[in-house]
Write a structure and sequence with these properties.
alpha+beta, about 25% helix
Length: about 600
């Protein structure tokens, strides 16, 4: 089928802007509206919900959002696709049917099953399914499709398969739609949310609109948003999201391996970025499996250390807490937020965070927090804490596994109740690990035949000036289990020539010392003028168990940008004026990064 498929997104996570569903339906034309609710941490939350009540396990907020806009979607012919089914897609599908009956609406609901795997030793174990089950439900006339754990991009790829009739061997088209899906699945993050240069956005980043992907029959797309909504869609906002939570050039998926080093971005007018040139190769023979287990119990207390002798005060607390509860499982982090010769208590104070993780709920609970409070009159001068004693809370540990695609019973349950098995891809490529990247510092991988890479500019030389790295580059970072990714892009060709030579793994270790002892992989994406780092083990046992101040590494990129370094004096901050948000041409256009 020909034409353009307009796919919008109204949710990037469980807890996103509750009014976005209504806004997306009311503010412009759409064919499909998607909602992503599942993160690794969310699956743990839903798993705990289902332990309490087997009828739960799905995103309950989605039902409340749908109640106010299901009738509008049906009237306008907008089909809804969401992974809000979580651990119980059949339960959510039934709840939607009951909601429609109560509202007096006739709705056809399909859902996708098979991702949940029998792992008696795990709280949850779910394979990341592909998009063809979603497409089958839409082909059967579903108005709403509910899934469990599919890849985030599948919410977009499935409707494109249904519209254009793609087959499993249409790899380039599937890869192009995968990029579109990856770009919109985090909601407003591609329209200016969490953007390094938010001060340049037309509205200062106050309320970015949610994104739309206009997908074409060949898999290429245009990223945009409804007219009049906040934020912006530029080559740089799209680049930032493209670098989010990715590894090497091979972006593994259950239906296709998408070559990120073939993606071309081009400003196609105000708030329109064309995405093209994407190439795909056969998917791996295995599916990634996300496994959540309860790891034990955790608690934390924070001491305020004011004035002089901060290290000695911290050492005293450490010795006292260890003597009271034992050293096992304790972690002490001293945040030197204090300033010399400060004029008020807050700016004169450092924070000592004390964390305890233990399999014994009693030891990690009041036994720990009460022991900390008992030091209030028996420790360092000025002793005070920011919290009252409290009980321990359970935490989860996320790990990634892999299973053969042929062993996973991917099933589309059509609106009439028919159960349609979805076969695995007919052609797969060998893959030895569930991750998208090998253990290597840098991997120069030749791209498939296609448009030529841009000419590499010469690195900048000459005098330097001291300044924050973020004057010249943007960054976006995030988490994948216990690993973090950190993508850094240059704003101009000249800066890219300098950045690719200057920002090595060794340099990263100097700027971010916590990465020095870890395995770090570095990948170049010349068409995006970007380098991406995968930092293995930075987040320990994962988000739910991490005691880092920034447990999801969301701020890691901004930390890097804040470091004062020697910048080439010849390089000016920011892109040319014509490339700023809202202009007709973007940095990608200036760099010669067309569709090819």
């Amino acid at each position: 089928m020909s034409g353009v498929l307009r796919v919008g997104n109204a949710s990037g996570f469980y807890g996103d802007r509750s009014t976005a569903w209504r806004e997306m339906l009311d503010d412009g034309e759409l064919d499909v509206l998607t909602g992503d609710y599942l993160a690794e941490l969310t699956m743990l939350i839903l798993g705990r919900d289902r332990l309490r009540d087997p009828d739960l396990g799905y995103a309950k907020t989605f039902l409340r959002q749908l109640e106010g806009c299901l009738g509008t979607a049906l009237d306008r012919g907008v089909r809804i696709v969401t992974n809000a089914g979580g651990l119980h897609p059949a339960g959510l599908a039934a709840a939607i049917g009951a909601l429609a009956d109560r509202l007096g609406l006739a709705v056809r609901v399909g859902h996708v099953e098979g991702d949940a795997l029998p792992r008696p030793d795990a709280l949850t174990a779910n394979a990341y399914l592909g998009a063809f089950g979603i497409a089958a439900c839409l082909d059967a006339g579903a108005d709403v499709v509910v899934t469990g754990r599919v890849t985030d991009a599948s919410l977009t790829v499935g409707p494109a398969i249904a519209r254009f009739g793609w087959r499993p061997d249409d790899l380039d088209a599937l890869a192009g739609a995968t990029v579109a899906g990856h770009l919109i699945e985090c909601g407003a993050q591609v329209t200016g949310g969490n953007f390094s240069f938010f001060t340049e956005l037309p509205d200062g980043g106050r309320r970015p609109g949610f994104p739309i992907a206009e997908i074409h029959p060949d898999g290429s797309s245009v990223l945009t948003k409804h007219p009049g909504t906040g934020g912006a869609v530029t080559v740089e906002t799209v680049t930032a999201q493209l670098l989010y939570e990715v590894g090497g050039p091979d972006y593994l998926g259950p239906d296709v391996v998408t070559r990120l080093d073939t993606v071309r971005l081009h400003q196609d007018g105000p708030d329109r970025v064309r995405v093209g040139g994407v190439r795909g190769t056969p998917p791996p023979a295995t599916l990634k499996v996300g496994v959540n287990n309860l790891g034990g119990f955790r608690n934390a207390m924070t001491f305020v250390l004011c004035g002089l002798d901060i290290p000695a005060k911290a050492a005293l607390v450490r010795g006292q807490v260890e003597a009271a509860v034992g050293a096992d499982g304790l972690e002490f982090t001293l945040a030197r937020t204090d300033h010399v010769d400060a004029v008020d208590t807050e700016t004169a104070s450092a924070l000592l965070h004390v964390h305890l993780r233990d399999g014994d709920r009693v030891r990690a609970g009041r036994a720990f927090s009460a022991a900390a409070v008992e030091l209030a009159l028996a420790s360092y001068p000025g002793c005070t804490l920011t919290t009252l004693p409290g009980d321990a809370t359970p935490y989860g540990v996320f790990t990634a596994d892999a299973v053969p695609q042929v062993d996973v019973p991917h099933v589309a349950v059509l609106p009439d109740g028919t159960r349609l098995p979805i076969p695995p891809p007919p052609q797969t490529a060998p893959q030895t690990t569930p991750d998208a990247t090998p253990q290597a510092e840098t991997r120069p991988v030749p791209a498939p035949a296609g448009p030529a890479a841009p000419v590499d500019p010469a690195p900048a030389t000459g005098p330097t000036r001291r300044g924050p790295l973020g004057e010249l580059v943007g960054a976006r970072s995030g988490d994948k289990g216990g690993d973090a990714n950190l993508g850094v892009w240059a704003r101009t060709d000249a800066t890219w020539g300098w950045l690719r030579e200057w920002l090595t793994v060794a340099r990263l270790a100097e700027l971010l010392p916590e990465t020095a002892a870890l395995t770090v992989e570095r990948y170049e994406l010349p068409h995006l003028r970007a380098v991406n780092f995968v930092i293995r083990g930075l987040l320990g046992p994962g988000v739910a168990a991490s005691t880092r101040f920034d447990p999801q590494a969301k701020a890691l990129g901004e930390l890097l940008r804040s470091r004062i370094v020697d910048l080439p004096a010849a390089l000016t901050p920011g892109p040319p004026a014509a490339d700023r948000p809202g202009a007709a041409a973007g940095p990608g256009a200036a760099a010669g990064e067309g569709d090819g």
